[in-house]
């Protein structure tokens, strides 16, 4: 399995590191436009190989897409991250141009690639990749829900006072502060509904802290987070590489599912060797359905700013 990661910045390098440490992949190519940057990150990571016990070969290149040829999976993390006080949506102008150009280059050298879109505003960037790549819709996956769900589980475990391994939960809809939908109705502690243990006030706290999870970190760090985003991407790459058929909420092109069409939104999907193998339809409460529709409306407005 050959994986290309475009953008050797905070998220790209973290993603390459987690992929390598899990040792399921033969080759990772890091690509960046900053002269020598990806080469430096790749060399630094390779010098952890004997310490961390992995055999994945990581190489770095500056803008040379010929070195990405034959990639099975490509991750797009190139673009600018948000600064404190910014929304993900404010990044669209710069990132749309970058994502479009990167997509064209990737597909030129790897026509059967599966693309994982990370750059923000992610749901709109995933939509842009659909409109410009010519790839089948199963081969384009937006990463947002995997990260937001990890943040949801972190907050659930905190509120429940239990280990994170005890909890399960999922976040769907848009990857945005206002639009994401943490599914409290489906969250569990060892199979028991989390709502059995948490007061309404605690439930609201978990939901609200999950929604501003990225903004909280951006305020603390001065830029957006990278460890959990990198780990979330690597989990999706592993599900593809190992054909795990894992159910992960991802931003995918909807064609009537969840009442929406011609839009990328976070919904539970089965991820395996072919990319998106199935969109899973789960029952939502009427309130959740209404929130999903509102979230889609907001994503559509941002999509409207795209110029192809
Ligand atoms: N979807 C998510 O859950 C999620 C989570 C975290 C960050 N993000 C987004 O991921 C993106 C990257 O974040 P980061 O913190 O790694 O930023 P960063 O600034 O650390 O890294 C971005 C890298 O992209 C490179 N780059 C810019 N233009 C390029 C091009 N045309 N070709 C190749 N490389 C190019 C830059 O040189 C830089 O090294 C941002 O848009 C951020 O908002 C998304």
UniProtKB/TrEMBL annotation:
Where is NAD(+) annotated to bind?
7-12, 32, 95, 118-120
Q: Which top-level group of life is the source organism from?
A: Bacteria
Q: Which reaction does it catalyse?
A: (S)-malate + NAD(+) = oxaloacetate + NADH + H(+)
Q: List GO molecular-function terms, semicolon-separated.
A: L-lactate dehydrogenase (NAD+) activity; L-malate dehydrogenase (NAD+) activity
Task: Give, as one word, the top-level EC class.
Answer: oxidoreductase
EC number(s): the record gives 1.1.1.37
Question: A GO BP term, please?
Answer: lactate metabolic process
Family assignment from sequence similarity: Belongs to the LDH/MDH superfamily. MDH type 3 family.
Say what the protein does: Catalyzes the reversible oxidation of malate to oxaloacetate.
Q: What is this protein called?
A: Malate dehydrogenase
The organism named in the record is: Riemerella columbipharyngis
The taxonomic lineage of its organism, from the top, reads: Bacteria, Pseudomonadati, Bacteroidota, Flavobacteriia, Flavobacteriales
């Amino acid at each position: 399995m050959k994986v290309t990661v475009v953008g050797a910045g905070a998220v790209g390098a973290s993603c390459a590191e987690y992929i390598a440490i899990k040792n399921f992949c033969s080759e990772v190519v890091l690509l960046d436009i900053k002269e020598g940057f990806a080469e430096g990150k790749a060399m630094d990571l390779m010098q952890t190989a004997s310490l961390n016990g992995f055999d994945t070969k990581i190489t770095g290149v500056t803008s040379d897409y010929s070195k990405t040829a034959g990639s099975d999976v490509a991750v797009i993390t190139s673009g600018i991250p948000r600064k404190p006080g910014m929304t993900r949506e404010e990044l669209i102008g710069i990132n749309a141009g970058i994502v479009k150009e990167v997509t064209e280059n990737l597909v030129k050298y790897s026509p059967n690639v599966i693309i994982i879109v990370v750059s923000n505003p992610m749901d709109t960037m995933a939509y842009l990749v659909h409109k410009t790549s010519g790839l089948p819709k199963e081969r384009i996956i937006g990463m947002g829900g995997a990260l937001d769900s990890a943040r949801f589980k972190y907050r659930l475990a905190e509120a429940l006072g239990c280990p994170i391994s005890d909890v399960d939960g999922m976040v769907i809809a848009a990857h945005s502060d206002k639009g994401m939908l943490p599914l409290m109705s489906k969250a569990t502690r060892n199979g028991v509904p989390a709502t059995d243990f948490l007061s309404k006030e605690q439930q609201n706290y978990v939901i609200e802290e999950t929604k501003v999870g990225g903004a909280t970190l951006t305020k603390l760090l001065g830029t957006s987070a990278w460890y959990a985003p990198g780990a979330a991407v690597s989990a999706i790459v592993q599900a593809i590489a190992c054909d795990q058929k894992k159910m992960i909420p991802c931003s995918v092109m909807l064609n009537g599912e969840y009442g929406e069409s011609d839009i990328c939104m976070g919904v539970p999907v089965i991820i395996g060797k072919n990319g998106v193998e199935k969109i899973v339809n789960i029952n939502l409460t009427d309130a959740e359905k209404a929130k999903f529709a509102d979230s889609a409306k907001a994503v559509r407005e941002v999509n409207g700013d795209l110029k192809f």
